[in-house]
Write a structure and sequence with these properties.
By secondary structure, this protein is an alpha/beta fold. Helix content is 35%, strand content 20%. The chain is built from 11 helices and 15 strands. A hairpin with a 2-residue loop joins strand 11 and strand 12. The radius of gyration is 19 Å and the shape is globular. Bound molecules: zinc ion. Zinc ion binds next to loops.
């Protein structure tokens, strides 16, 4: 889930209700059409391709970043955006010399990363996800975005993972190891980081978001402590030259990831100190604990949703 989405929802909420401090969102359950309208999502958006290493590309469109491995074994993608984008994804793969998608790995079950399963699954791709994400895709879910809620319906059987796993899984594919690591619940309870050993690159899913403060899906098992642990665990598997693909936003590097982890720890520590002082959610938000971080990670409206989720996960 992108934080810009939260920021936009905050803006909508403020304009409709006139307050920002006490978002009570029970009445606001959106569907994809409403979300798309609210954020001017346009499925006519073209796919942009960035080749990050030999045989490894990142596709940008609408929704989460897609990592694409093309080689002698076939085609493997990490995340798949929306079904409306899949014809363009397939076209871009073809232009890069690839064929049909053999494997689609979902970093987690959120719609903006996994809805494309609805096109890839029926076309014959093998869908792979963490076992918790596979469970979530099999049922109706409400994602609590703090300011509003989004209803993600169960996927049809042919859009769900045919392979799921617990902590670790390795593909020996396209001449190198592709490692799937679940380092505990973080952004959701079913997150996977995907390490491409041959190209020395990693796709982090939404545990690392480059579009501002991250969204922590606390209602479905995510937590700030889990985010930090997940990032540190995967970081330890990498090296200083690893190419870092975030769930959203530009491809980046290890120093940027290190700074992000530091930000998570800083905000967590500041919010925890205020909780220990007996402060309420409103008081913590009013304390503006991210003031010195907003320039890099987003404006006040973006930090509001983040602080809310940090506070909630630390007081649950
Ligand atoms: Zn997400």
């Amino acid at each position: 889930m992108r934080d810009r989405l939260i920021a936009a929802l905050v803006t909508i909420f403020i304009s409709v209700v006139g307050v920002a401090q006490e978002p009570t969102s029970d009445e606001t359950v959106m569907d994809l059409e409403q979300l798309s309208q609210a954020f001017s999502w346009n499925f006519d958006t073209p796919i942009e391709v960035e080749t990050v290493a030999d045989g490894l590309h990142v596709f940008f469109g609408i929704g989460g970043n897609i990592a694409v491995s093309i080689g002698e074994s076939g085609v493997l993608v990490v995340d798949d955006q929306f079904p409306e984008m899949i014809p363009k994804v397939n076209e871009a793969i073809e232009e890069l010399g690839g064929g049909p998608v053999d494997f689609a790995i979902n970093t987690h079950w959120h719609f903006d990363h996994a809805d494309g399963n609805k096109a890839l699954g029926p076309a014959g791709s093998w869908i792979v996800a963490h076992e918790h994400s596979a469970e979530m895709m099999a049922k109706d879910n409400i994602i609590n975005l703090v300011i509003a809620k989004y209803k993600q319906d169960a996927y049809p059987p042919d859009a769900r993972p045919v392979i799921s796993f617990g902590d670790l899984m390795t593909f020996h594919f396209n001449g190198g190891d592709i490692e799937l690591i679940h380092a505990g619940a973080a952004h959701t309870a079913g997150d996977v980081a995907v390490i491409f050993r041959k190209q020395n690159a990693v796709h982090f899913g939404d545990v690392f978001n480059k579009l501002g403060y991250p969204f922590v899906d606390v209602d479905s098992g995510g937590s700030i402590d889990g985010m930090i642990l997940f990032c540190e665990t995967v970081y330890a598997e990498l090296n200083e030259d690893t190419i870092v693909i975030p769930g959203h936003g530009v491809v980046t590097d290890m120093p940027d990831l290190a700074a992000y982890i530091e930000m998570l720890k800083t905000v967590r520590q500041r919010v925890k100190a205020l909780i220990d002082d007996g402060k309420t959610m409103d008081e913590v938000i009013a304390a503006n604990v991210t003031a010195d971080l907003d320039e890099v990670y987003g404006d006040v409206s973006q930090s509001l949703g983040f602080i809310n989720r940090v506070y909630t996960s630390l007081t649950k």
